[in-house]
Design goal:
About 45% of the residues lie in helices and about 10% in strands. It has about 280 residues and is α/β, with parallel strands linked by helices. It has one domain: TIM Barrel, CATH 3.20.20.60. About 40% of the residues are buried.
Length: about 280
């Protein structure tokens, strides 16, 4: 992909984090899901690392390699004309050098943004030291600049999601990390696991930077999140899991009832999908 085109897409995506509307992103896991959302009118595509891992037969949590993840990202980025940001988990490595290599590989894949988590494993013992995480973010920013593509970096802390540490200090530790990540060069900061309207509103005020919230069943509506100042809302693996839920319902109906209601209700017509998978301009 032309560097100038990528740079333009990155700047366009960056501006989407500054309103006036909230940036809602139902994350994708393959070309078909990305094309469906592009056709629906979404201005950008965000990938789901868990969704991609599940589709390849792996559990979530960096069980796939960087190359495996980016092979799918590249397919998506070259299949749609809108900006694509890649969920790169914790960067597929532990060192600053690893982050530089990941940032360069993301750009080579045709993406214009990336998510970076601050845990590298399945428990709070893998929570990356904040100073090191800041160094990683700064290195990603410098590496992207050196290639002429200003990656839109979404820096995430899993303090609420995992959760990490005592509940009484969770808010302050989240604010401290996300402020530091923003200062290090993150364009957006991500606090998955927060569902309380009041807590989200307090985070928006305390951080003073574009905030990304993970949509969940007990999360405020998009309209409410927009009203309190949230810049970006992501679905994570939920869209993919909802799709698999439909597959399970179809299978159960066929096996137990011998009927096809779920199979055809809301299905994308074959001709339309076949046409959608045709060549796209970048």
């Amino acid at each position: 992909m032309d560097v100038r085109v990528q740079a333009e897409k990155a700047e366009r995506f960056r501006k989407m984090h500054h309103g006036p509307r909230i940036l809602a992103l139902p994350n994708t896991w393959d070309v078909a899901s990305a094309r469906i959302l592009e056709d629906a009118g979404y201005p950008a595509i965000a990938t789901s690392s868990a969704g991609i891992a599940f589709s390849l037969g792996y559990p979530d949590g960096q069980r796939v390699s960087r190359d495996q993840m980016l092979e799918v990202v590249a397919r998506i980025a070259h299949a749609v004309s809108i900006p694509v940001t890649a969920d790169m988990e914790s960067g597929y490595g532990t060192t600053v050098k690893d982050m530089v290599e990941t940032a360069k590989a993301v750009i080579a894949a045709g993406a214009i943004g990336m998510n970076l988590e601050d845990v590298t494993g399945d428990d709070e013992g893998s929570h990356v030291n904040m100073t090191l995480q800041v160094e990683k973010i700064s290195a990603i920013r410098d590496a992207a600049a050196s290639l002429g593509v200003p990656l839109v970096l979404n820096a995430r802390t899993d303090i609420y999601l995992m959760p990490i540490g005592e509940a009484a200090t969770r808010f302050d530790r989240t604010v401290g990390r996300l402020r530091a990540y923003r200062q290090a060069g993150a364009d957006c900061v991500f606090a998955p696991g927060v569902t309380s309207r009041d807590t989200i509103a307090e985070l928006v005020k305390a951080i003073g930077a574009p905030l990304n919230i993970l949509i969940s069943s007990n999360c405020p509506s998009l309209r409410e999140l927009e009203k309190i100042g949230v810049a970006r809302a992501s679905a994570g693996s939920a869209v993919m899991r909802a799709t698999l839920g439909l597959v399970r319902r179809i299978g159960k109906e066929l096996m137990e009832r011998g009927t096809y209601d779920f199979l055809f209700d809301g299905a994308v017509p074959f001709a339309g999908l076949n046409r959608m998978m045709g060549p796209q301009s970048s």
